[in-house]
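Protein Entry — a single chain follows
Next Lines — sequence and tokenised fold
***
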Amino acid sequence: MGFYDTDYLEHHGVLGQKWGVRRFQDKNGRITSEGKERYRRDKTLNNVGRALTNTTVGQRLAVNLNKGYREDKKEIRNLYKQKKEELGDDREQKKSLRSDYKKTLGEARTTAAQVNYGWQSDEVNKKIQTQSVGLGIGKSLLLGGYGAKRYDQVKADTDSTGDAVLRGVLASVGDYATYGLLGVGEYAYGRNKVLTSEREQDKK
């Protein structure tokens, strides 16, 4: 029997990592400085996607292309595959594991969104990042990109569909009338707000 015929143990995941435990958040769910650094969007993506980030579809795309999120996604997926193999033929536990996997992946995506779009509430970022791509595109076609984002913001804060639709339509008309300046202005204001808040925290 040759060397390569012997059994060996292969580990796919991060040493010491526990399922569902975020390494870049503290116990209260706040993102640590290491987490913020990890989820910072690439400079290229920041330049190319500046206009896109004014829309729900653009925000989701920006997070999915985020280097830190892609690395996190790979780690979570590898750990999921490892645990799935350990369960063997147990369908019930596999179903539960699949549910936990999707939840953990969603949390990682929302965390990445919170770093870049922290001026929005956590509920808004979660709503944008967990909705289906088809739903996001459909709302963007009906209300326009910026209108769809305003719809999600209002819906997450008030849970009123009528009010959300009205605000979404008004935002879409306003953005169209200003040739997209309304959405760009909100992005610039929000980004500056996040950076200012981070500088103040660093001083403490």
Notes: Residues 91-116 form the longest helix (26 residues). The radius of gyration is 20 Å.
